[in-house]
Amino acid sequence: MENQSTAAGRAFQVDLRGVVDLLARHLYSGPRVYVRELLQNGVDAITARRAVDPDAPATVRLRPGPDGTLEVTDTGVGLTPAQAEELLATVGRSSKRDLDLGLGREEFLGQFGIGLLSAFMVADEIELVSRSATDPQAPPVRWVGYADGRYDLTVLPADAPVEPGSTVRLRARRDTDHWLAAETVVALAEEFGALLPVDVAVEVPLPGAQGTAWRRTSEPVLPWRAQYRDDAERTAALAAYCERTLGFTPLAHIDLEVPLAGLSGVAFVLPTAVPPGAGSRHRVYLKRMLLGTQVEDLLPDWAFFVRCVVDTGVLRPTASREQLYTDDTLLAAQEALAAQVRAWTVATLTSPSSTSRKVVATHHLALRSLAVVDDEVLDLAAQVLPFETTDGTQTLAAVRESHGDVLHTTRVEDFRRVAPVARAQGMTVVNAGYVYDADLLARLARRPGWRVRELNAQDVAQVLEPLEPLRELEVLDQVRAADAVVRPLDCDLVVRRFEPEEVPAVLLEDREGRHRSDVRRTVAEADDLWGGVLAGLTDATDDAPARRLVLNDANPTVRRLLTAAPDAPVLAAGVRSLYVTAVLLAGEPLRVREAELMNDAMGVLLDAGLSPRTEPRVPDETQEDV
Ligand SMILES: Nc1ncnc2c1ncn2[C@@H]1O[C@H](COP(=O)(O)OP(=O)(O)OP(=O)(O)O)[C@@H](O)[C@H]1O
Q1: Ligand 1 within 6 A of 153 CB?
Q2: Is any atom of ligand 1 closer than 6 Å to the C-beta of 334?
Q3: What is the rounded average pLDDT for all residues in the chain?
């Protein structure tokens, strides 16, 4: 007990190498961010100085030296020796959290008090020489920090040739000198600082060892806020900006503005199709410093067809400064941005223009695929995507508006089959036979306010006019005989009148009928036990065929055919060829069976046509026997 000693109230010792390692490996995306952190400190210092002296110069100059050094000089507020001691000697200490400088935190880019340490990723020593711009009595100061955690602080003579502001000097390690090379510094200054409102320039060697020149890397005005002569000039300038920064020529641009988040920017519409799963990633600037080029969560997934460039003054960064910190303001901003992109999309795609055609042609498939899983996109798709209908190309919303119900087929063949008749009858049927569309309509059917249903044979049969009773009697025997011809093809036959009269026959089919006939076929093929079980699943007594051939009594060929004797081979041959015609009209491929039918029918019809008599020869069994 005597040896016991208590250590109370002692301060943590921090091993700086561990901290730098932590930052390098886990916080920052790589050593490259050191340029961002130095620029940020320079800009913040200028902001602080301008708060008290609005006319103070606002420049940051980066001078990469030939010997692996880099000097970054700002005309900012500078530090007194006391401030340097306080702020630079303590990891995590920042002047930007308190109101010492008369400004709130939101005015500054930095806040965590660790940014300067990032320079240890590329150098073993950081030197900062500074003179306070706000305290003219304070002498300049030289502070040198070492990666092992030590630092030296020297107060320089008051008359030392040091301008107000700060200069940071780094000397690269052998393995990091490429990070300080002039071309790397230019590239990084442009990447992170292109939109900074202060004058940032890098000293670059002129070709042929002709000395050096300053290369400005920051734009004075945000490209979307700059003044242009007219809209056309602005559009061209923004397209050129998109090419420079995002690497593509946009199909269109959408202006974005969310005052609540101090946010403005542009969404550029991608010129090529992208997989919808690719998500949406954007270029975000925070107080005009690049936060990241792949920032997620700014827009919902359905906005996969745009890439944004935005600047925000209010949203906060995560500590890595590479993503946005999720808070209520971010959530509200996301909602507002989504609403703006949606409003543009609806307005553009619902009015015909070359832009809307290009956007639809490029992105419709991805929009459809997302609509199948996302109600928001579904609603959008229903408003903007064109669908093939029997009444021309229309959006689903337009079909609903004019008809209430949205009737559709789920296979292209079904659509082709009914289209001519439906069109002539003024019915509007949507072709949902292409990829994603049937699923999209099935989902839409469950959305409130939508009455969506698949077309069945009944719908079409109803619009086909029955024959006059007298005419019905007249052709009764022929119809019966014709029905017997198609029965073996899992089809029955009726005669109706319908427009257009050029269409001699249509083949109607419904999925239930097809399902019943599939089950029947399986029952027939299965062994006794399974046949019995399967038969129980369907209505065994219902042997209505899956398809119906409807002959058009308004068509002259059909009317002529129905004058043939009921047992005449030419009637059967004519019905078979009408059946095949209807199959082809439906866009279905001809199977061997149907091709044979067509051949047989042709044979009979040719015999009849080539006979010397003008009236079709009507061979019958008795004659053939002779
Ligand atoms: N160029 C500079 N001019 C004036 N003061 C500076 C300069 N660089 C750093 N400082 C002072 O040193 C403090 C610590 O800087 P550091 O970069 O580590 O953190 P920060 O900028 O405050 O926050 P963050 O970690 O978010 O960048 C700053 O708050 C600032 O007071």
Answers
A1: no
A2: no
A3: 86
User: How many Å apart are CA 109 and CA 83, to the nearest integer?
Assistant: 19
508-518, pLDDT tens digit by residue?
Answer: 875 555 555 65
**Residue in 19, 38, 39, 44 to alter for ligand 1 test, most ligand atoms within 8 A of Cβ:** 44
- CB of 42 sitting under 6 A from ligand 1: yes
* pLDDT average, residue stretch 603-610: 83
Three-class secondary structure of residue 525 per DSSP:
helix
CATH number of the domain where residue 241 is located:
3.30.230.80
Q: Is 87 in the pocket of ligand 1 (CB under 6 A)?
A: yes
Percent of residues, the chain, with pLDDT higher than 70: 86
> For ligand 1, is residue 88 a contact (CB within 6 Å)?
yes
Give tens-digit pLDDT for 396-417: 999 999 999 999 998 887 788 7
Whichever domain contains 508, its CATH number is 1.20.120.790
Higher pLDDT, 624 or 436: 436
114 CB near ligand 1 (under 6 Å) = yes
Give the end of a domain, one of 349, 376, 397: 349
Report ipTM for this prediction. 0.97
Output the CA 191–ligand 1 centroid distance in Å: 21
Ligand 1 centroid to Cα of residue 333, in Å, is 29
Residues 517 and 585 in one domain: yes
Q: Which conformational region is residue 296 in: left (phi greater than 0), alpha (psi within -120 to 50 degrees), or beta?
A: beta
Instruction: Find the 89 Cα to ligand 1 centroid distance in Å.
Output: 11
Q: Is 37 in the pocket of ligand 1 (CB under 6 A)?
A: yes
Distance 88 CA to ligand 1 centre (A): 8
- Tell me, yes or no, whether 95 and 126 share the same domain: yes
Residue 216: CB atoms within 10 A of its CB come to: 13
User: How long, in residues, is the chain?
Assistant: 626
Nearest CA to ligand 1 atom 6: 41
Residue 444 clears pLDDT 90, i.e. is over it: yes
Residue 538 has pLDDT above 60, yes or no: no
> Are 450 and 481 within one domain?
no
Residue 110 shares a structural domain with residue 184 = yes
Kindly report the pTM of this predicted structure: 0.73
Is residue 39 included in any domain, yes or no?
yes
Same-domain status, 282 and 158 = no
Assess whether 105 and 180 both reside in one domain: yes
Task: Check: CB of residue 580 under 8 Å from CB of residue 568.
Answer: no
Whether residue 440 is found in the same domain as residue 344: no
pLDDT value of residue 533? 46
| Pairing, β 547-552 against β 505-509 | antiparallel
* 145 touches ligand 1 (CB under 6 Å): no
For residue 20, the domain's CATH number is: 3.30.565.10
481 shares a domain with 415: no
- Maximal CA-CA distance, the chain: 138
421, part of any domain: yes
Nearest to 110 by CA among 86, 121, 94, 98: 94
CB contact at 8 A, 115 and 55: no
Report yes or no on 82 lying in a domain: yes
Cα 115 to ligand 1 centroid, rounded to whole Å: 7
Q: For ligand 1, say whether the CB of 95 is within 6 Å of any of its atoms.
A: yes
Per the structure block, which two tokens stand in for 598?
A: 């067509």
123-137, 191-205, 411-425, 476-490 — which is least confidently predicted? Answer: 411-425
In a domain, 7, yes or no: no
Structural domains counted in the chain = 4
Q: Which domain holds residue 83?
A: 16-216
Q: Measure 67 CA to ligand 1 centroid, in angstroms.
A: 26
Say how many C-beta atoms besides its own lie within 10 A of residue 462's C-beta.
10
Question: Ligand 1 within 6 A of 570 CB?
Answer: no
DSSP state at residue 539: -
Give the CATH number of the domain where residue 414 resides: 3.40.50.11260
Please work out whether the CB of residue 166 comes within 6 Å of at least one atom of ligand 1: yes
